[in-house]
Amino acid sequence: MTTESTPVSSNFLRAIIEDDLASGKHETIVTRFPPEPNGYLHIGHAKSICLNFGLAKQFGGRCHLRFDDTNPAKEELEYIESIKENVRWLGFEWGDHLYYASDNFEQLYQWAEYLIQQGKAYVEELSVDEIRQYRGTLTDPGKESPFRNRPVEENLDLFRRMRAGEFPDGAKVLRARIDMAAPNMNLRDPVLYRILHTPHPHVGDAWRIYPMYDFAHGQSDAIEGITHSICTLEFEDHKPLYEWFLDNLPVPGHPRQYEFARLNLTYAVMSKRKLHELVHQGIVNGWDDPRMPTLSGIRRRGYTPEAVRAFCERIGVGRGDSWIDLSVLEECVREDLNERAPRALAVLRPLKVVIDNYPVDQAEEFEASNHPQQPEMGSRMITFSRELYIEQDDFAENPPKGFFRMTPGSEVRLRYAYIVRCTGVVKDEYGSVIEVHCEYDPASRGGSAADGRKIKGTIHWVSAAHACDAEIRLFDRLFTDPNPDRGGADYKQFLNPDSVEILTTAKLEASLALADAETRFQFERQGYFRPDTQDSLPGRPVFNRIVTLKDAWNKK
Ligand code: ATP
Ligand code: MG
Predict the structure, then answer these.
(1) Is 261 in the pocket of ligand 1 (CB under 6 A)?
(2) Can you give the CATH number for the domain in which 207 is found?
(3) Could you tell me if residue 178 is inside a domain?
(4) Rounded to whole angstroms, how far apart are CA atoms 188 and 216?
(5) Burial class of residue 496 (count of CB atoms within 10 Å of its CB; 0-12, 13-18, 19+)
(6) How many CA atoms lie within 13 A of 334 on its CB side?
(7) Which of 440, 463, 486 is the last residue of a domain?
């Protein structure tokens, strides 16, 4: 496995389109994003969305959203709605150009009859297994079916009766009559239609037969006037068939298919079957679980559309199979949030601190800037008082060498406020420190010593009386292995048992109590967080960790 951690952005399709526009082959380009509505979109789809909508935008063309909905057994309205929402969230619009392959079912049916009339399609009665046996292998040619040379009239009659619902599921199929000895297996009389007595999420119960994907896809491209039909490399072998349909049917246009390498991302699974399994076996809490590589998941977690688009641009578009390390995506999220996330103070695992020489009933406010490099983002007031919380990790009774946070006898700066010195601790019956006592230097208001003495460490804090209680969900990678589904292994053995840690006693600065769900924050020294869109309550927020401040994984 090769991992590209710093890929150079390139996109060979841009050059092709530039040429097509320059040569006058096309005046304007039309692309499409064609999901099958049989699951939620994932980060791999984002690559295809950014590519198709991005090229259309760059070259002043248009991009269609088309549901390739040829298999009613697996498709649902819920998926259609989520796909639309995800594409919009990524920042793309299809305007009037929303299409369904199923809207073409009547036309596709007419074209199937046309092929029959041309002697280029026939009704097959071999079973699925027999069809497979007759198909041959890569090294052996296939065998012709005994039904292959039926008269046109008989084929038409049977096909019409298939449509009328006279036969049970699987009893017959319609096949193209191409070449059972073709070196490309896709040309060995591929199936065009199958019988399925299943209602369809978009067209209801109008049909008893449904076209196969290959018979619907290219023709839908032609009907919509697509110029560049961009798909992933596994369709390269289907291209001769794609062309065969366009050449043998009276279609209104002739789109061209181009293939690119799909996105493979480490520490994730992207097959829809596996994503379904994770959801339906309760391994994650739904399609939008913040650990999922689905667009709904990363959205709920707090990834921004800007970061995802930057990621898709950075990884580029090529034809070579490559793996992208998850850290590349995470770095894009960090770069985006570092620029625009307001800063806040949050104590995730609180330890009580009492400032013994600070007056009991006093409180004072300090101005804290919302972004140290962006003064235009303004500031807010944070309240200081005698009892505070600091992070448990920021105190050590017996500090290791180089520990510059709070330790007995030494001084540390409380961010924005004062310099304090730890004078003692209170322990519970097991010997754990449950409270730390300090004295503050009243002359250090704002955090600098009046006599100019140097203080090495600065830690964050919140006032106990003013803090807002919160739950914090620390998400980590869902898998411990960079390639959990390699070589047919059971990816579930690589589930990370620590992919989420829930902290229920966090204390946040008061301003976060009513944080709006769309705002992502940098909790200073902790990482980037945003309120959970489902479980957060006013005054009792739940924050999801979007990403840590630094990449910890590559150092493990
Ligand atoms: P399946 O065919 O197994 O249902 P799929 O992921 O191919 O799954 P589609 O709904 O057919 O799902 O995908 C829609 C579009 O997204 C297709 O054009 C497909 O090529 C593209 N796509 C899917 N996965 C990736 C990926 N990992 N990287 C880039 N593009 C992808
Ligand atoms: Mg597909």
Answers:
(1) no
(2) 3.90.800.10
(3) yes
(4) 18
(5) middle
(6) 13
(7) 463
- The residue among 431, 463, 495 that closes a domain is 463
In a domain, residue 250? The reply is: no
Among 168, 210, 185, 184, which residue's Cα sits nearest to residue 131? 185
Same-domain check for residues 157 and 185: yes
Which conformational region is residue 375 in: left (phi greater than 0), alpha (psi within -120 to 50 degrees), or beta? alpha
- Which CATH number does the domain housing residue 407 bear? 2.40.240.10
- 98: CB partners within 8 A, 6+ apart: 64, 65, 66, 84
Predicted structure pTM score: 0.94
| 413 and 362 within one domain | yes
Q: Does 340 qualify as catalytic in the annotation?
A: no
Alpha carbon of 425 to those of 263, 296, 390, 419, 503: distances in Å?
A: 53, 46, 14, 18, 24
Residue 45 near ligand 1, beta carbon < 6 Å: yes
Does 222 map to a domain? no
- In this structure, are residues 11 and 316 in contact, taking their beta carbons and an 8 Å threshold? yes
Task: Enter the tokens of residue 182.
Answer: 């073709």
Out of 14, 74, 163, 272, which one is annotated catalytic? 272
**Residues 475-506: tens digit of each pLDDT:** 999 999 999 988 878 999 999 999 999 999 99
Domain holding 110, by residue range, is: 105-212
pLDDT digits (tens, 9 = 90+) for 198-240: 999 999 999 999 999 999 999 999 999 999 999 999 999 999 9
Find the ligand nearest to 232 CA.
Answer: 1
Average pLDDT on 287-299 reads 98
DSSP codes of every residue in 296-362 = HHHHHHT--HHHHHHHHHHH-B-SS--EE-HHHHHHHHHHHHHHHPPEE-EESSEEEEEETTS-TT-
Query: How many domains does the structure of the chain reveal?
Result: 3
Vertex 393: Cα angle to 502 and 449 (nearest 5)? 135
Helix axis angle for 43-58 and 77-89, nearest 10°, is: 60
Q: Which of 4, 36, 243, 397 is catalytic?
A: 36
The tokens of 44 are what?
Answer: 């791999």
**Separation in Å, CA 393 to CA 239, 386, 521:** 59, 20, 21
- Give 139-188 pLDDT, tens digit per residue: 999 999 999 999 999 999 999 999 999 999 999 999 999 999 999 999 99
262 catalytic? Reply is yes
Q: Which residues contact 140 (CB under 8 A, 6 or more apart)?
A: none
Distance 249 CA to ligand 2 centre (A): 24
**Residue listed under structure tokens 């995800």:** 86
